[in-house]
């Protein structure tokens, strides 16, 4: 364009960034395949698609689209010849969650992997991937409660060998400090964290034994869903869920 304005307006800047983000993500969100490949894909995965329709909150078209994304990510790996099977690496899934669902916190991602997939190894299976997205995009409150508690516990287990499934004051301090330091700076963090622990314990410790058990947490969050991510973000934001859902679903608002 000859008369391109020097400074794009804010709106087009945003659009440009969004476009670049999608482009940098490249192939991954491209759901198109040539007809031969599509036939092969459907033949190979039709049983798995049917199984996943039962096990996840997606319909058959949505499962197929999500598996195509996986398939294309995995296909890229074959080029490097490092992986013998067509699998998505955890690294790729991390990038995927970053770009598609705006989840940027690396320590959070580590926790999520421990919770999703206890199997060691560098790859993530198609089924684990589909279940993870079902939970993140369409999970019921109860599913999310189970997941978030596991994620928080996984984080503790990394640093605390006591991992007994209870969140005591030390564990809470650790979790909350992580999310607060970035907000308020090192010095103020400690006092704020202690205050928060008081508030949270009052709200969540239903049986008043000083620790937050899964039952304490579950009972409280079922009544007050806003407390789901009280120990730190574990799930993508609503906005990110909606935006990504438009790429693979004809009904992105669908909430099951
Ligand atoms: Ca308790």
Automatic annotation (TrEMBL):
GO MF assignments: calcium ion binding
Keyword tRNA processing: no
Location of the region described as Disordered in the Swiss-Prot/TrEMBL record: 1-23
Database matches in Gene3D superfamilies: EF-hand
Residue intervals of the EF-hand domain: 192-227
SUPFAM superfamilies: EF-hand
Protein keywords: Calcium, Metal-binding, Repeat
UniProt keyword annotation of Transmembrane helix present: no
Record-linked PANTHER family: AT17667P-RELATED (PTHR23055:SF190), CALCIUM BINDING PROTEINS (PTHR23055)
Entry protein name: EF-hand domain-containing protein
Organism (species): Callosobruchus maculatus (Southern cowpea weevil)
